[in-house]
Design brief:
The complex is a heterodimer. Chain A is mainly α. In chain A, about 75% of the residues lie in helices and about 5% in strands. Chain A starts with a helix and ends in a 6-residue tail after the last helix. Chain B is an alpha/beta fold. The chains are: A mainly alpha, B alpha/beta.
């Protein structure tokens, strides 16, 4: 019986960490590679959720809608936004934040106007399974697996492919990269689109339990943001370690008290951590990691 | 090979190059000698497009390049070994070299192919360092790596910015030998900016003086052998 509880809590912790990781990764890629803080990140999640739910309602297989349509749609939107807004503001961090914040309001407004301010239902397409006397959602297990695959996939692309090499080199020294024949503008455009696609995929993945509303991004942007900042300079190791730590704190806090207090504890831990490690976790540990 | 005509460039409103003109002849090594602050690095950065050319014209193999983006100039055949070497610190030596050839191989869709073995054949001392991060190398090793990385892009004109900076004097002679050798083997033209007189004398076919952002007369060969003669020459400009 006691062992059941340990497993059930452990599973909840893992699924909390996985959710945080999935919803932060797109922001981490864009911030880590380009030093652009995308305050419309939450709305990219929302657009991914809408892309999935709309194409599923149109009769598409739900897995294809979530895993293929959502990232492609939001990646495409990201490509356009990079060209129209972000590209004009490279190197001007505050201006970029202001512009993406405006973009976030505009996207919320546009989606509300088109689809209305109602919660769209989107049931978890998997059943549940039992851990001893507890039942857990099989979809949560799927999310954990998805987080591992997503993180591993991004790492493998960066580490082993020519595109990944170009991305890492340009991130370290864009001027030298261009002197070696690589166009930094092109690298940034592709990076922004890739980060957007990951955000879109994340939005579709969390839609079944978060509900789909135009304002759903607001619930995630703050947590994603804190995760990325706590993670520090190394975007993958940072996001992984920060979401591991903060996700665990939030989930355990929720178990011990209430969901609200769980999040308060998570924020408190993040603040203390940034006081001790102003450069984030990877400013001190795993510095050479990606 | 390359003509630079009346080029004006600098940082903000501060003019560093004020109407700089010269030409590099195919196959030669042209040395440009100048003290710190005379515009040597600014000149190479302007040729690469890292600083915008505010006035004047730069032609490379007959084509005006002063409005092209840096990466386009690199793809046309300009290789750049910058001051401070600018090695990618957390990429390994192998990755630094692959990055040097990546624009070429990516566009030719040929993979990284046989550039790496050929370069390692010419730079055997890099072989044992291949898996070390570039930032962990010594100054001399980084200089070799920066040179090898530029050659991975198979340039026809190599721009060298003070390759002797931060290098032990004992290996400067070896570097001159090395560059003579590479020049012959790769059919390179070289534009070298330096303040080290011995290095210019050892490598360059002819030498020009840059002084306050302008190129003066050619420095007579005889004057190159004696620092005091060069100082007299500078004073006479």
């Amino acid at each position: 019986m006691a062992l059941d509880i340990v497993f059930a809590v452990g599973f909840q912790v893992l699924s909390g960490v996985a959710t945080l990781l999935i919803t932060s990764l797109g922001l981490a890629i864009i911030f880590g590679m380009m030093r652009v803080i995308n305050l419309a990140h939450g709305e990219f999640l929302m657009l991914g959720a809408y892309a999935a739910i709309l194409s599923a309602r149109a009769g598409l297989n739900i897995w294809i809608a979530m895993l293929v349509v959502a990232p492609l749609a939001v990646g495409g939107i990201g490509l356009i936004i990079e060209r129209l807004i972000i590209r004009q503001l490279y190197g001007r961090m505050v201006d970029t934040m202001l512009a993406t914040w405006g973009l976030s309001l505009a996207l919320i407004g546009a989606v509300t106007m088109i689809f209305g301010n109602t919660v769209a239902g989107f049931s978890a397409p998997l059943g549940s399974f039992a851990i001893g006397s507890f039942t857990a959602s099989a979809y949560a297990l799927f999310l954990i697996v998805a987080a591992v695959i997503l993180l591993g996939g991004v790492w493998a692309i960066l580490r082993f492919t020519p595109a990944g090499l170009i991305a890492r080199g340009t991130m370290q020294n864009a001027e030298m990269a261009s002197a070696l024949g690589v166009s930094p503008d092109r690298v940034y455009a592709v990076t922004f689109a890739a980060g957007s696609a990951v955000s879109g995929l994340a939005g579709a993945l969390i839609a079944p339990f978060s509900g789909v509303v135009p304002t759903m991004g607001a619930a995630f942007i703050a947590k994603s943001f804190i995760t990325v900042i706590t993670g520090g300079a190394a975007m993958l190791a940072g996001t992984f370690s920060a979401s591991g730590l903060l996700g665990t704190v939030a989930t355990l806090g929720t178990f011990a008290t209430t969901p609200v207090f769980g999040e308060v504890m998570m924020l408190a831990v993040a603040i203390v951590l940034l006081r001790l490690l102003p450069q984030g976790i990877t400013g001190r540990f795993f510095r050479r990691a990606l | 090979m390359m003509e630079v005509a009346d080029v004006v460039s600098g940082y903000g409103r501060i003019g560093v190059l004020r109407g700089t003109s010269f030409a590099v002849i195919r196959g030669e090594c042209l040395g440009i000698l100048g003290h710190n602050g005379m515009g040597k690095t600014t000149l190479l950065r302007t040729i690469m497009g890292l600083l915008s050319c505010q006035n004047g014209c730069i032609r490379f193999e007959g084509r005006a390049i002063e409005r092209l983006a840096t990466h386009q100039r690199a793809r046309l055949g300009l290789g750049y070994v910058p001051q401070g070497r600018q090695i990618f610190p957390t990429l390994t030596v192998r990755e630094n070299l692959l990055f040097g050839g990546i624009a070429k191989s990516w566009r030719a869709k040929s993979g990284t192919g046989d550039i790496l073995p050929r370069i390692l054949n010419d730079f055997p001392e890099l072989k044992r360092l291949l898996d070390r991060p570039g930032g962990a190398l010594s100054g001399g090793e980084q200089q070799l790596l920066a040179l090898a990385r530029a050659l991975c892009g198979q340039p026809r004109l190599l721009l060298l910015d003070e390759p002797t900076e931060g290098i032990q004097p004992s290996i400067v002679a070896a570097m001159i030998e090395r560059l003579h050798d590479l020049r012959a083997r790769y059919g390179l033209s070289i534009l070298l900016v330096e303040q080290n007189l011995d290095f210019i004398r050892g490598l360059a076919n002819r030498a020009l003086l840059i002084h306050r952002g302008q190129i003066g007369r050619e420095i007579p060969r005889a004057a190159l052998t004696d620092p005091t003669l060069v100082e007299e020459f500078i004073a006479s400009v």
